[in-house]
Amino acid sequence: MYEYLNGLITVLAPKFIVVEAGGVGYRVIVGNPYAFEQNKSAKVYIEQILRQDEETLYGFQTSGEKQLFEQLLAVSGIGPKSALAILANSDHTGLIQAIVSGDVNYLVKFPGIGKKTAQQIVLDLQNNLAKLPFDFNNITGIEQPKQSENPALDDALEALKALGYGAREVDKVSNKLAALDTLDTAGYVSAGLKLFN
Length: 197
Fold this sequence. Notes:
CATH architecture of the largest domain: Orthogonal Bundle
Shape: globular
Structural class: alpha+beta
Organism: Weissella koreensis
InterPro entries: DNA_helicase_Holl-junc_RuvA_I (IPR013849), Hlx-hairpin-Hlx_DNA-bd_motif (IPR003583), NA-bd_OB-fold (IPR012340), RuvA (IPR000085), RuvA_2-like (IPR010994), RuvA_C (IPR011114), RuvA_C_sf (IPR036267)
Oligomer: single chain
CATH topology of the largest domain: DNA polymerase, domain 1
Largest sheet: 5 strands, mixed, barrel
Radius of gyration: 20 Å
GO cellular component, one term: Holliday junction helicase complex
Number of strands: 5
Number of domains: 3
Subcellular location: Cytoplasm
Helix content: 25-40%
Strand content: 15-25%
Number of helices: 8
Protein name: Holliday junction branch migration complex subunit RuvA
Strand order of the largest sheet: 1-2-3-5-4
């Protein structure tokens, strides 16, 4: 699985770019190829999608944009092409505001998005957007993400979930971990594993 490609943009085409990294040219489908500059180096965040008969790389300028793409893909009725069309505009403030406020009329303006799908986007994503790394200062109706007092602990709790422990199990040990002397992420993960055993 790819996270990003760091390389030279060698081709700009209407629907894709080519990123040359390590002597290999990767064809990457992007919402707006002309947001990139040809013959300039760039970091392109990648989402790899495997289908029965094809393997496609989708590219984004920021990790936040990639995460928003992943959220859109989780909505029933939205495939990669529809999600990319929604993200083609580099300013996502209007999109996020529409989802938060339930503005279906704004969402149906995107290609391939009907009223039913727009309603599903609102239903599925309305409460999940605050977790994404965007500046929400200009968006009304969304609770501002609180700055964590202990990012290392937060990362450790997410790592424990990624290791297969359920959210309820992790929540039960979080207070015990928080009561420990401040550790780094690896220290919290290790202490958490001991509490589970």
